[in-house]
Amino acid sequence: MTGIVISGLTLGQLIGPLVISRLIAAYGWRLSCIILGSTVMVMIVLLAQFLKRDQDQAGRLRAREKGRNKQDSKPGSQDFILKEAVRTPQFWLVALIFFCVGFATFAITVHIVPHATKLGISAVTAANILAINGGIGIIGNFVLGGIIGDRIGNRKAFIIGIVLMAASLFWLVTAKEVWMLYLMAVAFGIGLGGVGTSESPLIARLFGLSSHGLIYGVAGFSWTFGGAVGPLVTGYMCDIYGNYQLAFLVCAIVSVFGLLLLIILRPTKRRGIEL
Q1: The whole model's pTM is what?
Q2: Which one, of 50, 48, 159, 177, lies nearest residue 101 by Cα?
Q3: What is the mean pLDDT of each successive set of 10 residues along the chain, which is 275 residues long?
Q4: What is the tally of structural domains in the chain?
Q5: Is 176 helix (H, G, I), strand (E, B) or coil?
Q6: Residues spanned by the domain of 177
Q7: Quick check: is 272 in a domain?
């Protein structure tokens, strides 16, 4: 289910660069931003009107939530609330892992097109590389994060995803040809798709479902923080050294650090559920 829902994100990354690159070529970046922002705003508002909660299901969820709240108040309850989760080392390990993923993800998303154009590749082809990275992520969502994750566990699927991301980043350091960048985009996209799908189930297995949304949201802040830091560091290093080689090497090392943290991650003592 998570893989199906989150595939909308990767589908958007498939379509977006193709559309935006052609809009910029036709109208310039200022008008293109206005067109894109207006279209997205209208679509979100319209589609949100179709989100309706089934009343019977809502009643069952409220009853279930009351039962969980009563259970949470009892000693020995397996589910964590936020203030309990943040006191565990697992929470901070997950936050650091999310930071590493966000760092590498947004660094590549923002800088892969400028890197390609620096190599003499056309802007449209560079945008296609970014689109492939997003589109192939759908396979990562369904296959790696969904089917494989359900069979071998979310943590193992997460590990495979980060390995693919790190390997593709090391490959990117020396990639010069278009086909090499396409290959990098495929590997990175599949890995990121698997990672993105595995995040929410991993939090659920560690801390339960009673406060899942809140715990996932707070832990996910580190992902967005990494997403803010990654492009800044990457761009700054490119400005200093004149190319992206060292910057992408740093991204690869950050991904490996996240992988090591994930390897040592263990279930919380209270739940003891296999990850």
Answers
A1: 0.80
A2: 159
A3: 63 73 81 87 87 63 55 61 94 96 95 93 87 84 85 92 96 94 94 91 92 92 95 96 95 97 91 74
A4: 1
A5: coil
A6: 2-72+79-264
A7: no
